[in-house]
Amino acid sequence: MAFNPALHPRGPNGRFTRSYARHMNSLDGTKKDKVKASWKSKAFKGAEDARTYLRGLLGGGKSNKGTGSPTKGAGSPTSPLRGFVDSGALGRANESLRAGKTSPEVQVIDKEMKPLPDSLDLCRSVPAKKFGSVDPKSLEGMKVSDAGYFPTTIAPTKPVPGNVKMHIQAPAGTPAAVDPDSGQVVLGHGAELAVDSVDVSPDGSTEMSLVALPGTGQGDGDAPSADAPDAPDVPSGAPDAPASPSAPDTPPAPTATPAGAPVGGIGDVIDEGMPSILEGGPEADARRQRARQQLGDAMNGTYAGLTAEVTGASRFYGGPDGENPGVRATLVLRDADGNEVGRAERAVYRDDNGDLVAVHELLEIDDRNRGGGGLASAFNAHLTDWYREQGVSRIELTANIDVGGYAWASHGYDFADENSANGVMDRLRDTLGDADGPDADAARALLARAESAPFGSPDYPTPFEISQLGRPEGASGRDATWLGKQVMLGSSWEGTRWL
Fold this sequence. Notes:
By secondary structure, this protein is of the alpha+beta class. It is built from 13 helices and 18 strands. The chain has helices spanning 26-37, 47-58, 80-86, 89-98, 104-112, 266-272, 282-299, 375-390, 404-410, 418-432, 438-452, 463-467, 483-488, and strands spanning 20-23, 114-115, 120-127, 142-145, 150-153, 163-170, 175-179, 184-187, 192-200, 206-212, 301-303, 306-318, 324-334, 340-350, 356-365, 392-399, 414-415, 493-498. 43% of the residues are buried.
């Protein structure tokens, strides 16, 4: 399996960011085409005319208490955005958001986000190196989202060799905060942008055309595309805007669904509360039935020749301390003749931030010779689409059981905690021993990175990198072996994958 860096997002403040890029589905394409077909942006005579327009969006003067920016007179309103930038509040907010958290700064800045009254042509220019190993051209046709606030300018920028110049069509209604003095227009966190085209000039400059999809931004975007792979990181670019999104630290209290009422999604099933095995009576039975039906509608089907059927739904507790409520689905796997040949368990719970988290607990087949090759890939791909539709933030699992340590690493799962990473690094040292040669040199270089780079930083080795150490070109199949595969086979580590 070739590793595509565009499908495994990383950011400067953590192993993965909540930013993403996904293939546009038909609805995304329709939204983009409607914006472009009716596009008529606000026209300006010059820079001062544009600044005057932005001042009009501020209204009267207001205090920037707590931002470090003085308040100007009522005749010359001061933008709170400038205070957020100068005091570092915007940067701190973006760091929290990209790490999947919220902060007091996020709550304050969100209050300054207002829908644009007119459609605007906006620009942004970032060094190509901010895209890391992702080729900007590979984003063409994708839907990208910066988990943090997305800074742009109302003033056009010139193409620069080595930079990616973005032209963003932001339709009226797009949430944004503005600063007239600098001409900045900062889009709300979580804004989804359709990458319409990417053109590379002979001089090395790149121009990217994007369309802000209506109804997104400030964390209110549509559910991610169900037909999309995991997504590349969206570079933050601007030095004053480290970024990122997330659910509030203190989520609003869920509203219970009345017994007998239809359940709209897996989040509703969890919020309603799954009864324990000790609870009986018509109401508890009705809740179990609704949960089983919801999970069955999502998971029942045929995958790689085997049929999966949800046979039960039960209470589940997840999280580091096993205290976060959720629901578990128990499934049986049958062959074409209806014989039971395996079983599976999948769960979803709410974490402390209120985010939905999927847990892959069990998937086993009694006799591989009776079929099931490719089952895990097909079943998990289907579930990943459903997770995204339901707003699940990430998948968690324990990578073990013979081949699991290698299989999940090769599928791009990352270490969920430092203890897991240290355990695999120790296995690599033990397996390496006193070996020499190119593969051993590469392994020692990777170990040196693990010692010098903090866990969670972009330079810290990933499970995928370890799994591919010494892999010969074209090597595949169960019988093929190499250094990294030997290390990861039989390993046990906690893994996570952001959606």
